[in-house]
Amino acid sequence: MPKLLVENLSKSYVQEGQRLPVLDGISFAVEPGAFVAIVGPSGCGKSTLMEIICGLEPADAGTVAVDGKPVTGPGHVAYMPQEDLLFPWRRLIDNLIVPLQLKGVPRHAARQEAHRWLPFFGLDGFADAYPSQLSGGMRQRAALLRTFLTEREIIALDEPFGALDAHTRRRMQVWLADVHRQMRRTVLLITHDVDEALVLADRVVVLGPRPARVVYEADIDLPRPRDILSPAFAAYKGAVLAHLGNGEEDPSAPAVAGPPPGAMAGGRRGH
Amino acid sequence: MWSRFLPLWESGFFIQRSGKDDGLVKGPLAVVGRYLPVIGLVVALLAVWEAAVRHFAVPKYVLPAPSAIAAALHGALPVLLKVHTPVTLAEAGLGLLMALIAGIASGTVVHSSAWARRTLYPLLVVSQTVPVIVLAPLLVIWFGYGMLPKLLVVTIACFFPIAVAVVDGLDGAHRGMLKLLRSMGASGWQQFVMVKVPAAMGSLFTGLRVAATYAVMAAVIAEWIGGDAGLGVYIVRSANSFRTEQVFAGIVLVTVYSIAMFLLVGLVRRWVLPWEAHLRAAGEAVKSIPVSSAKSQERSR
């Protein structure tokens, strides 16, 4: 049985009296322990999809099921939005324990549990810092650790590295792949960065422009760590980009030809 | 907790301090230096005042010279401090506390209930258009010459800025943070305690600071209507006997106490909201972020 099953999901918003379809019959499955990336052009409704999966928004039609049971409200999937959303008034350690506190774990025990993970998330020695004293990468790792501490089996990441500079972004991707390998949670990653999806995921689901539907799905059968300069990687990338195709809204999407190999590490976002 | 963190902090690990002047000056002399322009202006104005009164031989009961006011203040200080100050400060302090409680309560109700926002909120706004000075005699008729009517005047004068600040602060809590908590299965009450209350604290203190500057003044106005002691009583008595220099001496103290209340709220704020100082320091650091990463942030929006 898949860990997460999304079936025939549709959603529209009503804006100024007009019905605006956002999602149009989206279906896909995520196996236990898998890392699935959802790629789509900007503004295609990826975040709406994520909020429905996390039980924050109702769908108009279709179902989301975790372990075969339909999701009717929040609390089943750990959700990490684009911004780190660390509380500026709490020190790092007290930000991390929020999900534990919500479950009724006493503060002291929760802090101890969070402390154990600090080295693994590269936050050792920063427990008592305020978020404003941390770098962007550290804040994002802290937000990810907070997400892990929800202790849910499915983690949904919505463009987690979107606000980081290209270099930090690459380092965070390598690190996230490592985290996933060691912690074996089921991960759902939403991104508009094809490289990011192909570096991290076992399976890539490509959404078309709004109203979003699944236009392409592929298992990424490449050894890890992934080499973004290898021909096999380029082949997958070509296929994904071809299906993203007419996503005119995304200025980075039509770069099928790609930049010269040396510029890859810098990402295409700057062009 | 803090002490463990201190060595790292002092090593400048988190924030690279620039060697340049960062606008933070230390030591009593440096503080004097910072306020030198305003001190100079005040001294100049006082000198002009003093010279004008002497030159035109203005009668003391019309406009006393600063030197006469200082002498009056010096002479009356024991009485002012022992008899009148405690009464006025007690009224101002207790009244402000009552205003704080009333402001937080009504602000929370208005924030939490759409019904209260439509009914109670407009009423609160309208109530503010009635001048406190008109209410004071009414309160004396109803509650006598004791402390209660004075407390009520201070409360009425101070509670509105607090209530508005609470409503704004609670309304302004970050939507994303609330959504994040909801995704973790937090109840409405947990969202309120974990995000809305801390998020509203800054706004609350801003309102409280405004209210604090009203508090002493409101207590003095309430005392004008009647009472045995208090700076307001002292000022009215002095005015009635044309001891104008004593009126000014009272005004000086009212001003000093108002400023003290204002500063006290600032101190409490720093103590209660320690993270704000770090946030400000980070705000300075943001300016030095390289353009490329600022651009990529823009793109991701």
Which key features would you list for this structure?
heterodimer; A: 271 residues; alpha/beta; 6-stranded mixed beta sheet; 30% helix; 23% strand; disordered C terminus; B: mainly alpha; MetI-like fold; 81% helix; 0% strand; globular; disordered N terminus
Question: Mind explaining what this structure looks like?
Answer:
The complex is a heterodimer of chains A (about 270) and B (about 300). In chain A, about 30% of the residues lie in helices and about 25% in strands. In chain A, a hairpin with a 2-residue loop joins strand 4 (about 60-65) and strand 5. Chain A is globular and about 45 Å long. Chain A has a domain at about 85-150. Chain A is of the alpha/beta class. Chain B has about 300 residues and is mostly helical. Chain B folds into two domains: about 25-55; about 60-275, MetI-like fold. In chain B, helix 4 (about 65-110) crosses helix 11 (about 245-270) and helix 6 (about 130-145) crosses helix 9. The interface of A and B includes residues 87, 98, 127, 130 and 134 of A.
In brief:
The complex is a heterodimer of chains A (271) and B (301). Chain A has helices spanning 46-53, 92-96, 98-102, 107-117, 136-148, 166-183, 194-200, 231-244, and strands at 4-15, 18-30, 35-39, 61-66, 69-70, 78-80, 154-158, 186-191, 203-207, 214-219.
Please write the string of helix (H) and strand (E) elements of chain A: EEEHEEEHHHHEHEHEEH
Name of the CATH homologous superfamily of the largest domain in chain B: MetI-like
**What is the gyration radius of chain B calculated from CA atoms?**
25 Å
The main sheet of chain A orders its strands as 6-7-8-3-9-10
Taking pLDDT < 50 over at least 5 consecutive residues as the criterion, the unreliable ranges of chain B are 1-23, 286-301
Tally of individual helices of chain B: 13
How many DSSP helices of chain A? 8
Mean pLDDT of chain B: 83
Helix content range of the residues of chain A, please? 25-40%
Gyration radius of chain A, in Å? 19 Å
Q: What is the average per-residue confidence, as pLDDT of chain A, rounded to a whole number?
A: 85
Q: What is the terminal separation of chain B in angstroms?
A: 37 Å
Number of strands of chain B: 0
What does the main sheet of chain A amount to?
6 strands, mixed
Level-2 CATH architecture of the largest domain in chain B? Orthogonal Bundle
Q: How many domains of chain B, as an integer?
A: 2
User: In CATH terms, what is the fold-level topology of the largest domain in chain B?
Assistant: MetI-like fold
Distance between the termini of chain A: 43 Å
Which CATH class of the largest domain in chain B is shown? Mainly Alpha
Main sheet overview of chain B:
none
